[in-house]
Design goal:
alpha/beta; globular; 292 residues; 9 helices; 13 strands; four-stranded mixed beta sheet
């Protein structure tokens, strides 16, 4: 069973600030650091560190070699990543004194996927293999349709949530990975229980994982719900928390873990990630998680 992560590859420019800059405000940054990132890269590295065999697909610009090197360093197969002329995507990330962040994305090469390349990539995978997607690349609707036609298990993290997702057939999704904001954007509900009620009604065959920050996470399939509390730690940077949770959860499915055990392991992994700076570098290995 293989995992194909078709997603974004970015450079993250992380600025330490007193508070998230408001409209019309100019603020001095205390520090700037550069990391390899993008939801695609972060989730692939989380999958690899959690013990899964993962293939990354997507597009980088001519300046993107460092991202490929980073993926390879953690054992992610990059045979399906294209390098094209132009600029790699990047994110400008503000991290405030309370470790909360604000993120501005530039798509760059990430939004230059082609239907032909999608089909060539998916042809290398089989029925029952996993496809992990986020919403930081273009042609997501074509990707979902093509993967569904091939019988792949599609895991969707609909982030960032925008109008492009209106073209996607979410009935073809096997697993949704949502936070509270995305849950509200998808359902119009703010209370976790109400979000899950709407998701169960609209997508009765799908598994749903709703992450709730300090309140933990909830897993749902049909009428079954499993709650996992957050594991308290000193928070340094929350940038990769959701990506860590997503990668570890999929790895847990592949391992055949029960939802309750899987959620607990994901909570441990995320708690370690938020106690460290950066995105990909903050994601713990399975050995670190399993001894906690």
């Amino acid at each position: 069973m293989k995992v194909l992560n078709y997603g974004s590859l970015n450079y993250d420019f992380v600025y330490q600030v007193d508070h998230i800059t408001a409209a019309g405000e100019t603020q001095a940054s205390e520090q700037r650091e550069t990391f390899c990132g993008g939801k695609g890269l972060n989730q692939s590295i989380a999958l690899a560190k959690a013990g899964a065999k993962v293939f990354q697909a997507g597009t980088v610009g001519s300046d993107g070699q460092m991202l490929l090197d980073e993926l390879n360093r953690y054992g992610v197969d990059t045979a399906f990543v294209r390098m094209i002329e132009g600029e790699t995507g990047h994110a400008v990330i503000q991290v405030d004194r309370n470790a909360q962040n604000g993120i501005l994305l530039f798509g760059g090469a990430n939004i230059k996927q082609s239907k032909e390349e999608i089909d060539r990539t998916l042809d290398a995978f089989e029925e029952g293999d996993f496809l992990l997607i986020q919403n930081e690349i273009n042609l997501l609707d074509d990707l979902i349709d093509s993967a569904f036609d091939r019988g792949m298990c599609i895991v969707c993290n609909p982030s960032p949530y925008n109008k492009a997702l209106e073209n996607c057939d979410f009935s073809k999704i096997s697993v949704f990975m949502l936070n509270e904001v995305e849950g509200f954007q998808m359902t119009g509900k703010k209370e976790p229980g109400e979000i899950l009620d709407v998701m169960a009604k609209q997508f009765p065959r799908a598994e749903v994982v709703l992450t709730l920050g300090e309140e933990g996470a909830v897993y749902q399939k049909g009428s079954v719900r499993v709650k996992q509390d957050c594991i308290p730690v000193k928070v340094v940077d929350t940038t990769a928390a959701g990506d860590t949770f997503t990668g570890y959860f999929i790895a847990g499915i592949i391992k055949g873990m029960r939802p309750a055990d899987n959620l607990k392991r994901c909570a441990k992994a995320s708690s370690i990630a938020v106690s460290r700076k950066g995105a990909a570098p903050s994601i713990p290995t399975k050995d670190e998680v399993d001894i906690v």
